[in-house]
Design a protein that fits this description.
- With 482 residues, this protein is an alpha/beta fold.
- The protein is 40% helix and 20% strand.
- The strands form five sheets. Strands 10-11-9-8-7-6-5-2-14 form a nine-stranded mixed beta sheet, sandwiched between helices. A four-stranded antiparallel beta sheet has the order 1-17-16-15.
- The radius of gyration is 22 Å and the shape is globular.
């Protein structure tokens, strides 16, 4: 007999299939509609976005926020992010903060510095260290040796109390793992893997300097399953050099055969002025804007036809995946790791350029290894940027994250929480949303705002309407929505 939860989840999967059939016949989105509403904008893993963080934010302010958390009667649970920046080779498309080296002794030195930061921050965190999420990102976390990863996890567990159901995820370059190393990661408690696949076409791989044959990726994904990882994600990137509609269709054939639990379909943002490595890509090899659009539309149709559910933005999941269950019961959240099922929590980031969020403040570490090391050697937290949210920022963040997760925005509940009418607070914004509602992407009535299924493609555009900073001169250059 099914438990109530099992029955509910089985029903959710059926509801999702029905919803797909109704909402996405050929995606039900015309090219004209996409061209009409496509624009550059943030991905909203935070609000305000990281390019709005203030430079020279004082480390003392971060300590004050940590102290307030420590004094709280019931502080939010914790999420921990660790940035491990080392890679053996340069992927030309990459915009991450990385250090290219084949000298593996550098990671041991980095860990010593990282442990110093962890010890320092932990002095201010207070006694409550309940932790529901850990993510190792990079760079290439599996650049570290088995002994180094073991030491890292021992140090993390010394400072943080993981709940039995905590998510422990690690980003993986398939070129850097074996079945034995994946077994080691499972033994350390990791239960989620995210593989950078990007594209299976050999010509495309060579053009971006990331050659990883299909069989290599298949072996790594199968080893993840064999070792009991609860969720396996695969990243794809469209818009890379030499991609065509046919070549990416073959990549999708192979990915669908591998059947990961989740798929992220990222739009490559070519910003060579910002990311020097992208200057190694021949611009004449990049697919045209029309080809990119055709690849996107074809990819969405193929993934839906293969049984995946469109979560929103550029994320897909199988119907029984917890991401989809969270979407259906409106418990989906969004943070610096992307879409998550975890409730709002405080984020502690360690390592160069790592971002944290404590209460209503964001902080970001020094970007360079030297500046990061020097701050810690002076006995200072290595903060370079930060942002203290105003009451208005907090409300706008709530609205934006609700829209990004395609969760219904209930006006009565908003008034109960904030003591003010949504319509009076955001009358201008509601007017600017009207074209999206007229196009059948949103429903707006006296009760609230609802993102319609095909509107999940445009959640970044909806969110930008409520962003009071996006219309001001910006520091960052944003990617196109599609």
């Amino acid at each position: 007999m099914n438990s109530p939860d099992t029955a509910r989840h089985s029903g959710a999967a059926q509801d999702t299939r029905d919803e797909q059939t109704i909402a996405f016949p050929d995606l039900e989105i015309s090219e004209a509609l996409i061209r009409r509403f496509d624009q550059s904008g943030p991905r909203y893993t935070s609000y305000p976005t990281a390019d709005r963080f203030q430079r020279d934010y004082p480390a003392s302010s971060y300590q004050e926020h940590l102290a307030r958390r420590a004094a709280a009667e019931r502080p939010a649970p914790l999420s921990v992010y660790v940035h491990l920046p080392f890679c053996e080779s340069l992927c030309y498309f990459c915009g991450c903060n990385k250090i290219i080296t084949q000298d593996h002794s550098r990671s041991a030195e980095y860990l010593d510095i990282l442990f110093g930061e962890m010890d320092m921050v932990s002095q201010h965190l207070g006694a409550s260290r309940q932790t529901i999420q850990l993510h190792l990102g990079g760079g290439t976390p599996t650049f570290l040796s088995a002994a180094e990863l073991t030491s890292l996890m021992e140090h993390i567990r010394r400072h943080f109390d993981f709940t039995p159901d905590a998510e422990l995820g690690v980003e993986i370059d398939p070129r850097t793992v074996t079945p034995d190393s994946l077994a080691m990661l499972a033994g350390l408690g990791f239960n989620r893997t995210s593989f950078g696949v990007q594209d299976f076409d050999p010509r495309v791989q060579e053009a971006v300097n990331r050659v990883q044959p299909y069989d290599m990726v298949r072996t790594a994904l199968q080893a993840s399953r064999d070792n009991g990882f609860q969720s396996i994600n695969a990243d794809l990137i469209y818009g890379l050099p030499l991609q065509t509609l046919d070549s990416f269709s073959r990549t999708l054939d192979q990915l669908i055969e591998l059947s990961p639990d989740r798929v992220a379909l990222y739009n490559y943002a070519h910003l060579p002025d910002r990311f020097k490595s992208q200057r190694l890509i021949r611009e004449e090899d990049l697919p045209s804007a029309d080809t990119r659009l055709q690849i996107f539309l074809m990819s969405v149709r193929r993934l839906l036809a293969a049984g995946y559910v469109y979560i929103g933005l550029d994320h897909f999941a199988k119907p029984d995946d917890e991401l989809n269950r969270a979407r259906l019961d409106h418990s989906l959240h969004r943070n610096f790791q992307g879409y998550t099922t975890r409730a709002e929590c405080d984020l502690v980031g360690f390592g160069i350029s790592a971002i944290g969020k404590i209460g209503n403040a964001y902080v970001q570490n020094q970007h360079s290894l030297n500046a990061y090391r020097n701050a810690l050697e002076r006995g200072e937290l290595p903060i370079s940027k930060g942002f203290d949210l105003s009451p208005d920022d907090v409300i706008r963040r709530e609205v934006i994250m609700t829209l990004m997760c395609s969760t219904p925005l209930d006006f009565a509940a908003f008034q109960d929480r904030h003591g003010q009418s949504f319509q009076s607070c955001f009358s201008d914004e509601l007017a600017r949303l009207r074209p999206y509602a007229d196009a059948g992407l949103l429903e707006i009535d006296d009760q609230g705002i609802r993102v319609l299924p095909r509107g999940r493609v445009f959640v970044r555009a909806f969110s930008m309407v409520f962003d009071q900073y996006v219309r001001r001169p910006r520091v960052a250059t944003y990617s196109k929505l599609i």
